[in-house]
């Protein structure tokens, strides 16, 4: 019987062109295996994609597709000068004790600081440049709402009222899902503000989006199963999935946002889609109704799950918001995630997940094991803040404030930065992305610009840091919500000084 044509190649890869599995996935899986078995050592250089393609007799694009996926998953790193190499800190090692080679056995390990673990050195190397945590920037701090607008005196009174004579529910043994009164207040708020009903018993208060998403991923995926994430997207999403020990498959978004059709092409076996349909982060797209229905239909047909990150859906300035996926969900496959970080203040560390009923019992067991649940200190006060209508008032006030700040930023970009950057109005959100003009785009380095801006007191964030894969667009994420209008104009003048002297 004739054997199928098999091609042997560098790294010991054997491809089967007759197999139903596409070639790029065969390459990716075999390289991942070789890395996990330490046949390819951490830090080891990989042959160039051109060489691999010619020896495997496949198109170079096929090898690049496989490598992009491995880069996104953290198994391979791309360095401009030296090409591709095996990551020194493998994703699997982040989650379990190192196997095989002990740390310090590769050349890269030996030359680096002996007192740090490999994973610590990797996060140091990949850290997004910018502001130190102690300094208050002059403008554009990422994820920060306006501090002046929040009624802190009222907040202090609400805290005091509760803590002078704390009840068992706040000072005793906490429920693993958090304060019952807060969960009731959130359920009522979601009914009026977001148009869907849910039982307070299905709401879990968490200490942030990462905890919410890693809880969900832990509940519905096993280690090494995959979740689709938006590319570019929020770094916290990737970190949360890594915490839960599952794989992230980045799906490039287009002008209409996330496409389930494209996602199936990239990773057909994913069981979870993590999306921000109301306002994609950081690009700002609103997912259209057709795409929403396609995603819901995928979840229903394949018993998949959808994590709906509604991180700033409250701030919509023009146009009608679409109903959240959760409001359209007929089969109990959508998990709604939201946070008070951007609505009130981020150090509150209160976020929440609305679970489908089917996940509640297992989530209770899981949350009981979680050591760092959300603190109960602010939860009772927040329950009163919502129930007494202060949240609605605060949102009405800040919506007007932020709409004016977005206009001020657009004007500042046009007036002072128009030689280098451009941006467009966004109908929602708390930030804008300023992209380099075509004439300078090829030489524009958003990380270097961010570092230089930070030295001048401006807290811009690099767009390229939102990408998991190798194809990254550069730009500056400028969060206007926490910066008064007058400061916005001055900050644009400062940023112009920074850009004028940036090498290109
Ligand atoms: C896209 C996105 N999701 C969620 C969050 C909320 O995160 P957390 O609740 O951990 O503060 C943020 C905050 O910046 C965000 O940008």
UniProtKB/TrEMBL annotation:
HTH gntR-type domain span: 21-89
CDD domains membership: AAT_like, WHTH_GntR
Molecular function GO terms recorded: DNA binding; DNA-binding transcription factor activity; pyridoxal phosphate binding
Source superkingdom: Bacteria
Pfam family, one: Aminotran_1_2
Keywords: DNA-binding, Pyridoxal phosphate, Transcription, Transcription regulation
SUPFAM superfamilies the record matches: PLP-dependent transferases (SSF53383), Winged helix' DNA-binding domain (SSF46785)
Family (UniProt): In the C-terminal section; belongs to the class-I pyridoxal-phosphate-dependent aminotransferase family.
Listed name of the protein: GntR family transcriptional regulator
